[in-house]
Amino acid sequence: MNRSTDLLECRPQLSSTLFSDSMSDDERFQNATLRPIIKLQNDLFIEVFKNYVNKHKNVFLDLSIEKQIDYIENAIHKDMKFRNSLKGMVIGQFTVEEYQCYITNSSALNKRMMHLVKEKLISNIQVFHSIFV
After folding, report:
1. Residue 26 exposed, middle or buried by CB count within 10 Å (0-12, 13-18, 19+)
2. Residue 28 burial (10 A CB sphere; 0-12, 13-18, 19+)
3. Which of 17, 56, 79, 87 has the maximal Cβ count within 10 Å?
4. pLDDT tens digits, residue range 53-100?
5. Which of 98, 21, 16, 88 is nearest to 48 (CA)?
6. CA gap 62, 64 in Å, rounded
7. Which residues of 103-132 are buried (b: 16+ CB within 10 A; e: fewer)?
């Protein structure tokens, strides 16, 4: 058994992802590693956010769509415990080689990672309505 091979094999293939020689290393890492992992973890992110909303007394459901987007952004950017939990769900899916690449520029890659997770949660707003109702 090889952990790296197993991790890579279970990730979805993203046909829409393009690679070019002009890409930065960070952009290449985002497209090759972060996007497939975040897609793979989508259902888990939904459950984690559902739990987050429940723990915060379900105020999310009473908000307008615009305020729900703000709520998601604030949860990810201001609640460090929640943010670190989300980061852990992504980093835990890295191969050792990807982790070694990640730590060379973790600050910039964390920003990309959290942006992608935020966009994933926002794209699931309708799913949250069907779950909570």
Report:
1. middle
2. middle
3. 87
4. 999 888 898 999 999 999 999 999 999 999 999 999 999 999 999 999
5. 88
6. 7
7. eeeeeebbebbbebbbebbeebeeebeeee
